[in-house]
Design a protein that fits this description.
Number of helices: 4
Strand order of the largest sheet: 4-3-2-1-5-8-10-11-12-13
Number of strands: 13
Shape: globular
Order of helices and strands: HEEEEHEEEHEEEEEHE
Radius of gyration: 17 Å
Structural class: alpha/beta
CATH topology: Glutaconate Coenzyme A-transferase
């Protein structure tokens, strides 16, 4: 199984030269550390930054430079800082080429739940609602199974929804999966050492898989 950095490293392979990319809170923020050589992308943080770099080394943090998850970050030459109104204007006008979000649940129809667990206090829904409503291309970075061993890829989300029928690709510690237009997860890659049968057992939603599925290339 992959750890969180492994998930981020695999997602970084989806980046294309010239992309403007929004990184959500959690695992997606790690993608900034694994941008492939020769690929130039501009990372956008919804709190008002274009040109976000990797996390700073210990002792080099600037407490005034943070991402949407309040983690300290670095900026790259040519970066730009602005207010959140302009930031969300970029998002709502579909200027962002790729959005990478975390999730608590994803359904086989491409629904996503990532902002609230009933009964637990949350600070608010953040920008996820705008991102899923406006983004042209969304990849979800998440754990396939929860701490109780239960699948988080479901026939139908049980938590309050963030967006409906908006997710097309999911990367987990076990697999890379596409969500088909007609519904259902299609297994396209498996994590090193993970069997197709184990992924099937770990997926509650409808899953389509060939007998032979290629292993992820993380190099």
């Amino acid at each position: 199984m992959l750890d969180k950095d492994g998930i981020a490293k695999r997602i970084a392979k989806e980046l294309k030269d010239g992309y403007y990319v929004n990184l959500g809170i959690g695992i997606p923020t790690l993608v900034a550390n694994y941008i492939p050589k020769g690929i130039n992308v501009v990372l956008q943080s919804e709190n008002g930054l274009l040109g976000m770099g990797p996390f700073p080394f210990e002792g080099e943090e600037d407490p005034d430079m943070i991402n949407a998850g309040k983690q300290t970050i670095t900026t790259l030459p040519g970066s730009s800082i602005f207010d959140s109104a302009m930031s969300f204007g970029m998002i709502r006008s579909q200027k962002i080429d790729l959005t990478i979000l975390g999730a608590m649940e994803v359904s086989e129809n491409g629904d996503i739940a990532n902002w609230k667990i009933p009964g637990k206090m949350v600070k608010g829904m953040g920008g996820a609602m705008d991102l899923v409503a406006s983004a042209k291309n969304i990849i979800v970075a998440m754990q396939h199974i929860n701490k109780a061993g239960e699948s988080k890829l479901l026939p139908k989300c049980t938590l309050p929804l963030t967006g409906v029928n908006c997710i097309r690709k999911v990367v987990t510690e076990l697999a890379v999966l596409d969500i088909l237009p007609e519904g259902g997860f299609r297994l396209i890659e498996r994590a090193p050492g993970v069997s197709v049968d184990f992924i099937k057992q770990s997926t509650a939603g409808k899953l389509f898989a060939e007998a032979e599925v290629k292993e992820m290339d993380l190099n």
